[in-house]
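Quarterly update from the structural biology core.
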Amino acid sequence: MTRFSRIPASVVTGFLGAGKTTLVRHLLSQAEGLRIAMIVNEFGDIGIDGALLAACGIAGCGDDDIIELANGCLCCTVADDFLPTMEKLLARPNPPQHILIETSGLALPKPLVKAFDWPDIRSRVTVDGVIAVVDGPAFRDGHFTSTPEQMARPDHDNPLEEVFDDQLACADLVLLNKADQLTAAETAGLENRLRAALRPGVKILASRHGAVDPRVVLGLAAAAEDDLESRPARHDTETDHDHDDFESFAVTLAAVADPEALAGQVAEVIRRHDILRLKGFVAVAGKDMRHVLQAVGARVGGYYDRPWRPGEERCGRLVVIGRKGLDREAIGNGLLAPA
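Predicted structure, tokenized:
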């Protein structure tokens, strides 16, 4: 991997459930001794992704290597959260050789890239590249695009499309992820659609489970902080970006008897409500392993990631993210029904 006089930082962006954490975990597993620090940002107030990375069992993936910034988006909390975090990283006796920043799925990357222009940061860190991870099946199914009929309405507003477009506009590399769920024709068609939305020269790679060569992702040498003008975004004219279109809350679950039955309940709750993303940990009765449950749209999956630690409370915590106005009581009741 290329070495730099300034520490390179890679910004991993992409909508909820696109596969950002999976990509980061893969990059860490292929780090070849490179000292990497991670900043993980989540929209909700429970850090699921950071906990998943900490449990991955990969060298350099311990608590000291992961800095978790929950309950907000870095694009909105640059001064309060991101800059102090970067200063602490740079003040370490052995600073990282590369910094990976996984943003919230609702974050806009451009305000974050702008923060690297601060004098104390700019002199020591450069934005090696912005990697946008795209959920191939969700993109194919039109989750991020408006129909011509919708666009013709005077009151039309699609915040999902706006966030998705701004993430693409800032990208130096796009990973069309979950390509194993697409046909070759679908992959080619989606690549053409993406290419029309990207800046000239931005590469597109089809990926499966985020498995890409780290030498392709780490070492772009884009110096994105010097190239902001070429990255137009829908929100450039806004003096203050917020996330009033979205909300998040957590549900605590007792141990369940059957995780597959719970997955069925989750699918039904998602079908009835405007839930974009659901993820968290579940305790399964009679099992010493923690169960991870994740849902993107109607797709629900799960797996066991690690044993429960001694003294760790064995209960489930699920984070629900969706459009503003979620019926929290109905969603909670649906998830809390015995499984």
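The chain has two domains: 7-230, 246-336.
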